[in-house]
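Project outcomes to date are best conveyed with an example. Our students and postdoctoral researchers have been running inverse folding experiments weekly, and each run begins with a structure described purely in tokens. The record below, which covers 408 residues, was selected by the lab manager from last quarter's runs and is presented without edits.
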């Protein structure tokens, strides 16, 4: 276990002392246009302002979802993290309880941190009458505030918004605006893992959201339309928080030749992928979901220096790494029509990521349980041969099989 001294800021700077300044050109427009990155002042993390909220926060935050160790939250705070992202559904509310207990009760840091939580309404509940949807929102926010031991959250997200109908659902919109009016939520927004480009573009027209929590990782390096949308959204004042930044998954390693696997080992993957996301200046901060002190130690130096080390450059420039990125599901939904039963493949593949990549079986099950059974993996049970095809080469049948085994 890492001791506190390891989290000393000087040590972080020391860790990145070998960083090489300069422009990294990977031959893609999104990176070749990069300018030299700013570095934090000595001993201080780089901070950015979260859109119209005005919150100035370090570029590395904590996605608490996968963590169940209160000491890790405490260490994250001591290391300088000031934005903590949780949700009502994480660990059936215990995740929020931990955040409230450590940050509000024990550290008495309520006024020094930005707490973001989410109200999740499962897909199978989304067709309920408007009054019921509003009632669910009210009850869930009250429960979250009680667990977080506070009378307001800084950011309240409508969770898992992947279609325009839910984004614009009047009961959802009115609930969020009501909470803001009542000052139970200082700022409002939504999280999106799927169809991100479309929902963010629609949100820019709606002009009621303050913050968007969205997926951004290296597998999206050539999705220029999405990157452009994010840039425009930030220019319009939307605060952008990046999640799913470190798309490292065990199956990449398995599918590359043994001699290349060195690129997939060790903490450089973590830091290289996190830096790639944060070098997009339209992103204010990222919420890596570290679960160990070692991962916190690997992520935190990134808050002080976004320059790539030679090793990180080598990793990101490697042809095989880029090829393997094609095996990361972008949740684009283009495989949907290829499944004759209409199962919700992007959501099921997200559940695969929770289980296979994060080791968070609880969240994987919750994600699957939230789907109508006709759209869940249950619908695959008596399907003789998977006909679903990914436009990018994700082996869908294999992922479904892995998920079944992992959750058995
Ligand atoms: S499996 Fe492929 S087609 Fe389906 S959502 Fe993922 S990236 Fe898109
Ligand atoms: S196994 Fe494949 S084709 Fe069959 S229902 Fe499931 S996703 Fe669809």
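After processing, the design step wrote out the following sequence:
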């Amino acid at each position: 276990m890492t001791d506190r001294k390891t989290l000393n800021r000087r040590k972080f700077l020391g860790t990145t002392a070998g960083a090489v300044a300069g422009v990294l050109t990977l031959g893609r427009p999104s990176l070749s246009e990069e300018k030299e990155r700013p570095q934090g002042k000595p001993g201080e993390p780089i901070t950015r302002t979260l859109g119209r909220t005005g919150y100035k926060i370090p570029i590395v935050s904590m996605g608490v979802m996968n963590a169940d160790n209160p000491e890790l939250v405490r260490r994250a705070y001591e290391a300088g993290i000031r934005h903590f992202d949780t949700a009502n559904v994480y660990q059936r509310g215990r995740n929020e309880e931990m955040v409230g207990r450590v940050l509000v009760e024990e550290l008495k840091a309520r006024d020094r941190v930005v707490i973001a939580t989410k109200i999740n309404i499962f897909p199978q509940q989304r067709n309920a009458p408007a009054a019921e949807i509003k009632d669910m929102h009210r009850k869930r926010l009250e429960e979250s505030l009680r667990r977080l031991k506070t009378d307001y959250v800084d950011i309240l997200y409508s969770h898992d918004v992947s279609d325009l109908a839910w984004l614009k659902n009047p009961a959802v919109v009115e609930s969020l605006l009501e909470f803001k009016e009542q000052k139970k939520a200082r700022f409002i927004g939504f999280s999106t893992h799927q169809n991100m480009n479309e929902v963010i573009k629609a949100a820019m027209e709606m002009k009621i959201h303050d913050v968007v929590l969205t997926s951004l990782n290296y597998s999206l390096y050539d999705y220029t339309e999405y990157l452009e949308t994010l840039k425009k959204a930030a220019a319009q004042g939307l605060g952008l928080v990046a999640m799913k930044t470190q798309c490292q998954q065990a199956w990449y390693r398995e599918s590359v030749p043994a001699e290349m696997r060195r690129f997939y080992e060790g903490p450089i993957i973590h830091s290289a992928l996190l830096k790639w996301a944060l070098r997009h200046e339209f992103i204010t901060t990222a919420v890596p979901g570290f679960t160990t002190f070692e991962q916190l130690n690997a992520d935190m130096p990134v808050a002080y220096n976004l320059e790539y080390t030679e090793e990180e450059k080598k990793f990101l420039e490697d042809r095989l790494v880029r090829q393997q990125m094609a095996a990361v599901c972008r949740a684009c939904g283009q495989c949907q029509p290829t499944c004759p039963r209409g199962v919700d493949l992007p959501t099921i593949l997200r559940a695969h990521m929770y289980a296979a990549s994060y080791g968070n079986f609880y969240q994987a099950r919750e994600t699957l349980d939230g789907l109508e059974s006709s759209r869940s993996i249950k619908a695959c049970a008596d399907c003789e041969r998977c006909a679903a095809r990914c436009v990018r080469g994700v082996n869908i049948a294999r992922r479904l099989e892995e998920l079944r085994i992992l959750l058995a």
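The chain has two domains: 4-325, 336-407. Strands lie at 47-49, 56-58, 62-63, 83-85, 114-119, 153-158, 185-192, 211-215, 239-243, 285-286. The training component of this project remains on track.
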